């Protein structure tokens, strides 16, 4: 490898250095029994760079797990270097995502959490022979027993070894996939609230089953958030046989689902969906609770247990644990994206108002003991079987009829309570509203002082039930547009973890914002991806000409070639050059996404050439044709640096999957956009002029591009931090004046 080796290197060099400070990550709870990031005590702060900004460019603060030395044995020795691994140090320096921890992870680096994880792994492995000898029914029984223990309050970390071993056994039986040791360790890190960086093709889907299963045991739901409906469905359906074997239900949220379907999916032990849908459901639920004036008492999904098919019950049961797939794109790139929904629909509002009226009208006919009972302690009114029968038999308007029965029982119970216990001129008075004297309103009488408690309202729909009893206007809020950012949404989960192929460059940001330290999970098989020295040209034209020539040369050997471009224009430009050379190829860009899966699936075939713009992070595996492996695997050409090194790494990760052979090369030119962002316009113009005049090699300038990329990354990071600060201040202010920051949106 030449000295001028280009890379996302500078940052990676820091990775190595600061990974020596692996322990920096471990300042959270290191003792055993750590459960999720909720108890992590929060990660330490990101590294401050000279200019005071957090180092976004470097992977500082990354923890790297013991490498492929995590052999499939009960007591792996992470210190053994892997003799078959290629030049790992060079790869690491070069920012190759596959760089495994093997060579630099000495015993000295082994931090307590790693030692703990290895111990946990040994415990998981110890269960294996026992479980293997048991039949399916016994495996299921064990799983049920675990659930009882979890529900009874036993710590999940104690249950982890058996839980993960059960999951692994179920995977082996139901899917013919046995979780590798590295996947088990990755799963442990996820359970403890980390973002696990796993290379593409290393099996994130299977790894996810581990923390999802374990967290689901407590019965509060475990969510997997991914980027689109297709992946949510695909992954859920793929993993369902495994969960079935363990007696765990799986729900899938799809955009077109109605409220009833959503509620059912959320009531499952594990729910797969997109971040967007989770956000919208959160907002819709919140609007509904506010309309029913139940917000303060019922924290979202605190749940009153009732399920119905009407829109009058929240759909989520709570936000307990969420595993975010493609964490870098969801938690970082999409972090500031606001999810906005309109107001509560008029029909839902009318339905609520009408139900209050209906309940108030019929409540007096319900008799104590016969139709309802009063709990002495809680003073709660509960319908008897006869009472419920009566509710079913009562006449109802169309609007009321569409309300679920469970909801109607609740409306009646509330109305009965109000008729019995809330008396006019004792607990409340009626007087003309200050805002509009033509409208009457209920004002609470403070039971201690006897004074009017201006502006206060009873909760849980009591206030509305009284309004309805007195025949005055029912104050169901009209509902306003509601809004939440992706970041706020995920910060609401007490237990959060993530998986990604490329988190290294966002490590400090992840930790700082979400308190989810990033850990790099080594590949199961030693990586064999080779980085070829980068090439730098004066102009785009000369660069593309050279790229086309390289494609021709590699193509002649029969190896498949994948070329990533930054824009549709450039993909077309390259496509034309290839056409001129008579090289058959496919172009994958926004103009033909419908064929994406097909094109990507075929991209690993003998002699295939594929030109692609920013490929979606994942979706379809590029499987190499058998004969390709012996020829040297796939060759990837990166035609330009992206603003975020992560995107480059995503492309690079397309070759050399799961220990396959492969190679990649970075092409650069002095008129690349990254220089404008990183060096500023005047300097980049100078470089451009220099490039136009110079026809020789400029390979020695490769590092300048990497530095420019890091500058751009830092700038984006700083912008995100400033925005986050403003948002935080806004929310704080809104709370102080009694507003709901999600519902009372300023825009
Ligand atoms: N433990 C295992 N045993 C056998 N096959 C496995 C195992 N883990 C993963 N695989 C296989 O590896 C392939 C990649 O898995 P998966 O799609 O989950 O990877 P990924 O990490 O999500 O990659 P990408 O980011 O590209 O989607 C799948 O074909 C899967 O069958």
From TrEMBL:
Principal location class: membrane
Subcellular locations according to the entry: Cell membrane; Cytoplasm
E.C. code: 7.4.2.8
Catalytic activity: ATP + H2O + cellular proteinSide 1 = ADP + phosphate + cellular proteinSide 2
Domain SecA family profile: 99-700
Matching Pfam families: P-loop_SecA (PF21090), SecA_DEAD (PF07517), SecA_PP_bind (PF01043)
Membrane topology: Peripheral membrane protein
GO cellular component terms given for this protein: cell envelope Sec protein transport complex; cytosol; plasma membrane
PANTHER family in the cross-refs: CHLOROPLAST PROTEIN-TRANSPORTING ATPASE, SECA INNER MEMBRANE COMPONENT OF SEC PROTEIN SECRETION SYSTEM
Family per similarity comment: Belongs to the SecA family.
Name used for this protein in its record: Protein translocase subunit SecA
Organism from which the protein derives: Aporhodopirellula rubra
Gene that this polypeptide is encoded by: secA
């Amino acid at each position: 490898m030449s000295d001028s080796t280009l890379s996302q290197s500078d940052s990676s060099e820091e990775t190595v250095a600061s990974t020596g400070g692996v322990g920096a990550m471990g300042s959270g709870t290191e003792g055993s029994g750590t459960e999720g990031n909720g108890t992590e005590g929060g990660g330490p702060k990101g590294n401050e760079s000279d200019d005071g900004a957090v180092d976004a460019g470097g992977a500082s603060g990354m923890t790297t797990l013991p490498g492929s030395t995590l052999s499939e044995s009960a007591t792996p020795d992470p210190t053994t270097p892997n003799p078959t691994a290629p030049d790992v140090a060079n790869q690491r320096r070069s920012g190759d995502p596959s760089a495994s921890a093997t060579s630099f992870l000495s015993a000295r680096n082994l931090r307590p959490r790693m030692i703990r994880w290895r111990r946990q792994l040994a415990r998981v492995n110890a269960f294996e022979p026992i479980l293997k000898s048991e039949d399916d029914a016994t495996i299921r029984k064990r799983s049920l027993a675990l659930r009882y223990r979890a529900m009874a309050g036993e710590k999940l970390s104690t249950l982890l070894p058996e839980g993960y071993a059960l999951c692994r056994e179920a995977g082996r039986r139901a899917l013919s996939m046995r979780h590798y040791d590295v996947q088990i360790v990755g799963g442990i890190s996820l359970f403890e609230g980390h973002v696990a960086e796993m290379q593409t093709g290393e099996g994130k889907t299977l790894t996810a089953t581990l923390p999802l299963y374990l967290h689901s045991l407590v019965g509060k739901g475990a969510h997997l958030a991914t980027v689109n409906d297709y992946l949510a469905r695909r992954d859920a359906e793929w993993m369902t046989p495994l969960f079935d074997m363990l007696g765990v239900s799986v729900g899938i949220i799809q955009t077109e689902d109605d409220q009833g379907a959503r509620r059912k999916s959320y009531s499952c032990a594990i729910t797969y969906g997109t971040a967007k849908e989770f956000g919208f459901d959160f907002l819709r639920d919140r609007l509904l609770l506010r309309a029913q004036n139940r917000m303060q008492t019922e924290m979202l999904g605190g749940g009153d247990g009732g399920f119905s098919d009407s829109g009058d019950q929240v759909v989520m049961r709570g936000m307990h644990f969420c595993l975010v797939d493609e964490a870098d794109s969801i938690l970082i790139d999409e972090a500031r994206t606001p999810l906005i929904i309109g107001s509560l629909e008029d029909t839902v509002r009318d339905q609520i108002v009408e139900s209050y009226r209906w309940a108030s009208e019929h409540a007096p006919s319900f008799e104590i003991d016969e139709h309802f009972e009063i709990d002495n302690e809680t003073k709660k009114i509960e319908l008897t079987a006869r009472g419920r029968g009566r509710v079913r038999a009562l006449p109802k308007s169309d609007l009321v009829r569409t309300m679920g029965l469970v909801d109607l029982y609740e409306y009646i119970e509330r109305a009965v309570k109000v008729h019995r216990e809330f008396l006019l001129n004792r607990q409340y008075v009626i007087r003309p509203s200050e805002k509009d004297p033509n409208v009457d309103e209920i004002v609470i009488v403070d039971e201690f002082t006897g004074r009017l408690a201006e502006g206060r309202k009873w909760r849980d729909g009591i206030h509305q039930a009284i309004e309805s009893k007195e025949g005055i206007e029912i104050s169901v809020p009209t509902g306003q547009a509601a809004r939440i950012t992706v970041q706020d949404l995920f910060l609401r989960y007490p237990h959060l973890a993530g998986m990604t192929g490329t988190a290294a460059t966002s490590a400090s940001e992840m930790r700082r914002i979400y308190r989810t330290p990033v850990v790099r999970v080594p590949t199961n098989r030693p990586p064999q991806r080779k980085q070829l020295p980068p090439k730098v040209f004066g102009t785009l034209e000369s660069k593309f000409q050279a790229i086309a020539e390289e494609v021709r040369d590699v193509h002649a050997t029969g190896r498949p070639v994948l070329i990533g471009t930054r824009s549709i224009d450039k993909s077309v430009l390259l496509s034309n050059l290839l056409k001129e050379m008579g090289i058959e190829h496919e172009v994958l860009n926004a103009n033909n996404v419908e064929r994406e899966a097909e094109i990507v699936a075929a991209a690993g075939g003998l002699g295939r050439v594929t030109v692609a713009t920013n490929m979606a992070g994942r979706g379809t595996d590029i499987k190499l044709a058998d004969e390709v492996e012996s020829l040297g695997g796939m060759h990837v050409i990166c035609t330009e640096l992206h603003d975020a090194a992560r995107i480059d790494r995503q492309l690079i990760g397309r070759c050399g999957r799961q220990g396959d052979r492969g190679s990649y090369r970075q092409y650069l030119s002095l008129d690349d956009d990254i220089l404008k962002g990183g060096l500023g316009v005047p300097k980049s113009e100078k470089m451009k002029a220099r490039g136009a005049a110079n026809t020789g090699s400029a390979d020695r300038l490769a590092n300048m591009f990497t530095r420019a990329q890091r500058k751009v990354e830092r700038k984006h990071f700083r912008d995100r931090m400033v925005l986050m600060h403003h948002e935080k201040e806004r929310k704080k202010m809104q709370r102080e004046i009694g507003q709901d920051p999600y519902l009372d949106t300023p825009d």
